Amino acid sequence: MKVLGISGSQRVGGNTTILLEEALKAIHGRVETELVALAGFGPPGHRADGKLEETVAKMRAADALLLATPSYFGMPPGRMVAPLDATWDEQRKGAFAGKAGAALAVESEWGGELAAQCLGHYFTSHRMVYLGYAVGRGLKEREILYDIKAIREARLLANRLADAII
């Protein structure tokens, strides 16, 4: 069984990716995990060839998705939305129906819950089993590591995700 984590952070090693890493570490021995960091895909509009298609193929193959996004005005950034939009055909065919999904969001001051709920809507529109979300706060580099509550909730959420697919 495999959980695919996707970080929509614009920054390599940013707070969103760190929170996702913490969540995936919590289930690493229980299920196979993989992290895709979209920050490494190149600047928006100039994405590395084949990366989007490769990510969608990994999404198809995974048993569960753990999507992590920063909050930009209460929404996931375009970098996070691009692979989600690329699954339009999968949604119409019901290809993800029954897979498990959960969301993580990192806010600087506000909007994390809205961004996480956007990802929740993605899961439900695909008829996936949506297990909820966790929100953390971090603006400065690595600041998310001080949000102990968010790290604890992200780990618990990841464990619920693993429980759902085992």
Describe this structure in words.
The chain has 6 helices and 5 strands; from the N terminus they run E-H-E-H-E-H-H-E-H-E-H. By secondary structure, it is α/β, with parallel strands linked by helices. It has one domain: Flavodoxin domain (Rossmann fold), CATH 3.40.50. It has a 5-stranded parallel sheet with strand order 2-1-3-4-5, with helices on both faces. Strand 1, helix 1 and strand 2 form a beta-alpha-beta unit. The chain is globular.
CATH class category label: Alpha Beta
Order of helices and strands: EHEHEHHEHEH
Mean pLDDT: 95
Cα-based radius of gyration, to the nearest Å: 14 Å
Q: What is the distance, rounded to the nearest whole angstrom, between the alpha carbons of the first and last residues?
A: 7 Å
Overall CATH architecture:
3-Layer(aba) Sandwich
Question: How would you describe the shape?
Answer: globular
Q: Which blocks of ≥5 consecutive residues have pLDDT under 50?
A: none
Helix segment count?
6
What count of domains describes the coordinates? 1
Instruction: Look at the structure and name the CATH superfamily.
Output: Flavodoxin domain
Based on DSSP secondary structure assignment, what is the total number of beta strands? 5
| Strand order in the sheet with the most strands | 2-1-3-4-5
CATH topology: Rossmann fold
Largest sheet: 5 strands, parallel
What topology emerges from the helices and strands here?
Layout: E1 2-7, H1 15-27, E2 32-37, H2 51-61, E3 64-70, H3 78-85, H4 88-93, E4 100-107, H5 112-125, E5 129-137, H6 148-165
Parallel strand pairs: 1-2, 1-3, 3-4, 4-5
